[in-house]
Amino acid sequence: MTDFFHPLMSEQALKQCSSLALAHMGDSVYELMTRGYLIHSGLVTNKNLHRKTIHLVCAGAQAAGAQAILPMLTEDEQTIFRHGRNAKPKSTPKSSSVAEYALATAVEALFGWLYLQGSYDRLNELFTVLLPAAQEWADNQRPTRRG
Fold it and tell me: Its Enzyme Commission number (predicted)?
């Protein structure tokens, strides 16, 4: 039976993946890690989990987190990141700038690449550094209540 939960790929197979294909995988990896973090941190209501997840997985939060992990990337990781940043998706969401979306795509491509090669410890290391910056960005985006 094929293990689709841990779809390890060879270096040669990974080189054949486009940056957008890596970002496609990395998007789900990043969201799964975010959801795992939120559940582990004690959020229990579906409304709170969903709201917080949306705030942390958006392009702006990922772009903020990208700035935090850039200094710690290896040469190979920098190459994947750069290719992801330079990928040209067909559209960008209205809720983010082109620059934010490019950085978010870079993070997702990197996370997809690391996941597909089985570098789970490195994913956790980068996510741990990225998360506080993403949280700070998300916290600063919330509208204030008028009362």
Answer: 3.1.26.-
Q: Cβ distance 87 to 105 under 8 Å?
A: yes
Verify whether residue 27 is a known catalytic residue.
yes
23 falls within a domain: yes
34-46 pLDDT, tens digit each: 999 999 988 778 8
Q: If 0-12 CB within 10 Å is exposed, 13-18 middle and 19+ buried, where does residue 15 land?
A: exposed
- Point out the catalytic residue in the list 3, 27, 76, 121: 27
The answer to the question of residue 11 being in a domain is no
Record the pTM.
0.90
Answer whether residue 101 is part of any domain. Answer: yes
Q: Report the distance separating Cα 28 and Cα 22, nearest Å.
A: 10
Which of 136, 115, 142, 19 has the alpha carbon at shortest distance from 68? Answer: 136
Sign of the CA dihedral running 12, 66, 59, 42: positive
Domain that holds residue 111: 17-141
Q: Phi and psi at residue 79, in whole multiples of 5°?
A: -65, -45
